[in-house]
Amino acid sequence: MKRTIVSFAGATLSLMAGSLVVLAAQAPGGAAPPRMPMSFFVTSVGLGKGGDLGGLAGADAQCQALATAAGSTKTWHAYLSTQARPGQPAINARERIGSGPWYNSKGGILAADQNELHGDTLEAAQQNNGMWKLSILNEKGQMIRGEAENGNVHDILTGSNTDGRAFADNADRTCNNWTSSTTGSVLVGHSDRMGGGNISWNSSEEVQGCSQEAFARAHGAGLFYCFAVN
Amino acid sequence: MRKIPMIVAALAATMAGSYFAYAQQGSPEHPMTFFITSAGMGDGGNFGGLKGADAYCQLLASRVGAGNKTWHAYLSTQERPGQPAINARDRIGAGPWYNAYGEMIARDLAHLHGDTLQLARLGNNITKLTNLTEKGQIVYGLGDFPDPQDGTIEYVSKTIYSNRHEVVTGSKPDGRAYTGTSVDYTCNNYTSNEAGTSGQAVRRNGMGAAMQVGMSDRNGGGNGSWNSAHSTGGCSQADVVRTHGQGKFYCFAIN
Q: B82, B109, B74: which is closest to B190 by C-alpha?
């Protein structure tokens, strides 16, 4: 009973938040400072095949296509790690995304640099960054539905540790380096920074199974983060 | 367009009303040991010092049947001649702490504050949906019931339906007092209601009477920190309200 009511209230509040964003975007402002171009977004749609993104190349292409459709002229990479394989070293998501600063589709700053984004020092980690539910937007400027809302898809694929690096052991954390839509498991962050007992945006919990259905059960849609590298 | 907030406000009010009827403080296994004060004390940054703030925690807890525990306010004080600084984190016991639903918000002091790199990056379980008042209410935050007037004391005195996400801590992200500085982070150790000297809203540390606040919804304030996002614009109740606060603070049971 308690939960039902909270869910309802949460959904109501999120509707409000949605209208606020619209209002804010339309705010009259004579000499507003120029908006920084988008250099970060969550994919508005997944590729529809669970953890099979066509590898890093397929995921990068999805970032580029969505960004281009939204009017961006930058070069885009998916924030995804891959694990080491014979003859192939691991690839760390954090090393694929340039050096920042990164801005969302409304020009809001998310992090000034890698240290702020990943919390490389204890002080930076405790201070955290500008990534939160109202700032983690898709390329269309929409919030991602999260906890206590209908259609929660806050699980964002990363395959990464909290420091933005690949896992070093042999257990699958990347749906076989983004090629499996059936078996395997994957590390996700939460776009609303809640659920999973922590507030991590990039390494909150492990999801078992790599099918689109498995993702949906765990509150995901196979969405991932995209960063502009330039 | 203007109609929507009213309808939603009314709906939320109805929901909240029915919700209270079912609310239990904590669960049988996990009684409540953490809450945000459901209202401020009303005199800006003057809480009557730590003692007054602690008594307020105890009072609100007792009103919801949780007065059998000993409650302390999560507030740091700054050093004064003959008085060392006091750290908020040293005042709240060892945890784990549970909200009014019986949900754990942190296992221990290290989890609450992120004392190691991994703990700090992961964060604790304080979110908008778990960061509840003693009555089990969600504290309205960024994006809720937006209204251009909601930074004025007149508006806030008429409605609770506005962003009130600022929570006073007077603390750094690690839960400790600011030391070695003459900058006021605590409204003179929670005894001052002095008005701010400018109309500046936030981030005016070093410009006079002020106190450090966190964000109950972990949205906004530059970093979304639950305990140390930025400063108020002064210590009067009007100053506190102007930046979406109310003079609320966190209370923890130490036993």
A: B74
Judging contacts by C-beta atoms under 8 Å, the chain B residues touching residue A197 are 104, 125
Contact call for B101 and A15, based on CB within 8 A: no
Digit-coded pLDDT (tens) for A77-118? 999 999 999 999 999 999 999 999 999 999 999 999 999 999
Look at the domain A35-228 and name its fold. Mannose-Binding Protein A; Chain A (3.10.100)
Contact A147 B127 (CB under 8 A): yes
Q: Which of B123, B129, B225 sits opposite A148 (nearest CB)?
A: B129
**Which of B36, B72, B32, B74 lies closest to B54, judged by CA?**
B72
ipTM score here?
Answer: 0.77
Reported as a single tens digit per residue, the pLDDT across B37-67 is 999 999 999 999 999 999 999 999 999 999 9
B13 touches chain A (CB under 8 A): no
pTM: 0.82
- Just give the CATH number of B30-253: 3.10.100.10
Q: Where are the domains of chain A?
A: 35-228
Interatomic CA distance for residues A161 and A119, integer angstroms: 12
